[in-house]
Write a structure and sequence with these properties.
Blueprint lengths: L9 H10 L3 H24 L29 H7 L5
Keywords: Membrane, Transmembrane, Transmembrane helix
Length: 87
C-alpha cells in the first residue's frame, strides 16, 4: 500500500473555525437591526418631540425663545415697553 490515508490535521479545521464569527453574533446583529427598525418606525409615527422641530432650518422662521426681540427672552417686558405710547 503506497497511498496512506492520513487523517486531516486538527489544526486546519481549527484555524477555519477561529476566523469565522460565532453563530451567536449573527443572532445579535439580527436582533439589533430589528430593534433599530422598530424604534425608527415608532419615532416616525410619533413625529417631532417639540413644536417647530422639523429638522430643516431653511424656512427662515425663528423659533420662539431664540432672543429675537433684543435679548429680552420673549417675555412681556419688551412688549410693555413697545406698547407704552399707544394708551
Amino acid at each position: 500500500m503506497t497511498a496512506e490515508s492520513r487523517p486531516k490535521s486538527p489544526e486546519a479545521g481549527a484555524s477555519a473555525r477561529a476566523l469565522a464569527p460565532p453563530p451567536v453574533l449573527y443572532g445579535f446583529l439580527l436582533l439589533l437591526a430589528l430593534m433599530f427598525a422598530v424604534s425608527y418606525a415608532v419615532g416616525s409615527v410619533a413625529g417631532p418631540v417639540a413644536p417647530g422641530m422639523s429638522g430643516s432650518s431653511d424656512t427662515g422662521v425663528e423659533a420662539p425663545g431664540n432672543g429675537g426681540a433684543g435679548g429680552d427672552g420673549g417675555g412681556s417686558g419688551g412688549q410693555d415697553m413697545d406698547m407704552g405710547g399707544m394708551g
